[in-house]
Write a sequence for this structure.
């Protein structure tokens, strides 16, 4: 395939056994585009990136892409035994090959025209690849993403999950692909790293397509947004940033709710009319004694009119029922805390912490009230996840004490969700975790967090976002007294992230959130606890 300067999908059609994701849509992304992909979990954002990258073949249609198009996967695909040095050298493989060719061409100069031409071509390639700044680019990228302090002999198995993700992103940027395809690139990035990535993408010389749940990043980077919504309108491209998109979607939701309500009223009115028409015109009773002579002719005419009206009304009703817009999905809300516990009955702290985890956390005099709204911030490595782990009782203190009110129930929504039985279905996992009585009162289906096709899939086969939705459903169905959320908006759709934030405002217990999400942080109206510099 001839190389191109843009990404193009033509009549793209793709799906899986249980559903169609894309149905013949076209897409062009030129060298100045920074296209953000948004949509519900499982809508097809990651699939579209794989199709554009050539990592997956569409059912129909074609994709053309620049030579050297590269994809950043959500999950790091480099072997755990790879050292940082090996990862970086792999990213520079093309640059090193161009350097070697330039050295070979220079060594072969003998005054002949052929040698001069070969050297000129090698020099042009070296200039395009900017080979002389490659090592400086490595240092700048590692520093920009906050992983420059990791020794080069360290293996990927020896660093944290966040560091692995940042190293994978660094390697991709260092390789300088002609087109960038990024799946959740800001996950595990702190403010400084996000700002570095924002500046890098703004000046990237080729097309960029990225799927992201980072609403501030979408506002800052995207020149347009592609909303993937198979359930409603398929694929829709919006110009402008995320704020303009929110306004458009809010107006669409209002129109949707209004249309659903109006059609519901019309259905009810038609059903009443169909039932009442015979009674209204008296065709459901015989003639009165003094009207028997005229009843034959007049009654027959009235019956014909009533029958015609009933047929017309029934036809309209049938058409309306068949083509009526679906009901807008429910807005996220938490069930009440189950009765039988008095852990939140009075004022004062329900959790109190003074202690340390060696090399990871040192906290003195932290108290959490019964209706606390606490935001934990700080750079990567400052101990945010460790603090939540201590509060949840998962991580032991090396010194100090964690005291908790008697009967207190604490639950955590982890960054990386793991289910003990990955072959068990989502529905079965939910029912087993919350209990039969609670699952009858608050069913997984009614929560609307998972699409119908995912309810009976093994949890190990769900997408990362769907697994997180299931974990959230477990909390919503049986809310704890203290709800801990570690980067709650990671892997959640934009709409669900916003709904979750709104729902937390009326949560029936205490809420502690650790987050890098600048959109969430800018709108937080509770207490903020900032942990110290990275260790």
């Amino acid at each position: 395939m001839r190389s191109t300067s843009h990404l193009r999908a033509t009549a793209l059609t793709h799906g899986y056994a249980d559903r169609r994701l894309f149905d013949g849509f076209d897409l062009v992304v030129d060298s100045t585009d920074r296209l953000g992909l948004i949509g519900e979990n499982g809508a097809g954002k990651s699939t579209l990136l794989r199709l554009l990258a050539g990592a997956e073949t569409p059912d129909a249609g074609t994709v053309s892409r620049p030579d050297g198009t590269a994809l950043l996967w959500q999950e790091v695909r480099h072997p755990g035994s790879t050292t940082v040095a090996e990862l970086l050298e792999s990213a520079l493989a093309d640059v090193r090959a161009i350097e070697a060719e330039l050295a070979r061409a220079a060594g072969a100069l003998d005054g002949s025209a052929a040698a001069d031409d070969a050297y000129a071509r090698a020099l042009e390639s070296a200039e395009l690849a900017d080979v002389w700044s490659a090592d400086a680019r490595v240092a700048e990228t590692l520093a920009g993403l906050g992983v420059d302090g990791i020794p080069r002999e360290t293996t990927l198995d020896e660093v944290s999950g966040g560091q692995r993700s940042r190293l994978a992103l660094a390697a991709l940027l260092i390789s300088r692909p002609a087109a960038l395809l990024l799946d959740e690139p800001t996950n595990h990035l702190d403010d400084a790293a996000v700002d570095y990535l924002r500046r890098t993408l703004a000046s990237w010389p080729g097309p960029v397509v990225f799927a992201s749940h980072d609403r501030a990043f979408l506002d800052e980077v995207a020149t347009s947004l592609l909303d993937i919504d198979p359930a409603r309108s398929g694929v829709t491209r919006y110009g402008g940033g995320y704020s303009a998109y929110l306004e458009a979607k809010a107006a669409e939701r209002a129109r949707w709710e209004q249309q659903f309500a109006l059609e519901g009223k019309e259905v009810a009115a038609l059903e009443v009319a169909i039932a009442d028409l015979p009674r209204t015109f008296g065709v459901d009773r015989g003639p009165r004694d003094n009207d028997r002579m005229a009843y034959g002719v007049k009654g027959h005419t009235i019956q014909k009119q009533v029958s015609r009206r009933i047929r017309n009304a029934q036809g309209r009703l049938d058409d309306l029922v068949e083509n009526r817009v679906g009901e807008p999905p429910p807005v996220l809300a938490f069930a009440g805390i189950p009765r039988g516990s008095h852990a939140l009955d009075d004022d004062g702290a329900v959790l109190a912490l003074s202690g340390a985890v060696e090399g990871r956390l040192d906290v003195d005099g932290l108290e959490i009230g019964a209706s606390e709204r606490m935001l934990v911030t700080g750079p990567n490595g400052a101990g945010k996840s460790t603090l939540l782990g201590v509060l949840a009782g998962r991580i032991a203190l090396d010194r100090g004490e964690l005291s908790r009110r008697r009967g207190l129930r604490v639950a955590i929504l982890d960054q990386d969700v793991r289910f003990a039985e990955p072959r068990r279905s989502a529905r079965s996992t939910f029912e087993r975790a919350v209990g039969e009585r609670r699952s009858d009162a608050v069913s997984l289906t009614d929560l609307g967090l998972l699409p119908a096709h995912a309810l009976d899939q093994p949890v190990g086969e769900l997408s990362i976002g769907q697994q997180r939705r299931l974990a959230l459903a477990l909390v919503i169905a049986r809310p704890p007294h203290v709800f801990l959320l570690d980067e709650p908006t990671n892997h959640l759709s934009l709409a669900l992230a916003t709904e979750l934030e709104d729902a937390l405002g009326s949560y029936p217990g205490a809420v502690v959130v650790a987050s890098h999400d600048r959109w969430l942080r800018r709108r937080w109206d509770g207490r903020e606890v900032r942990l110290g510099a990275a260790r």
The chain has 17 helices and 17 strands. The chain has a mean pLDDT of 86.
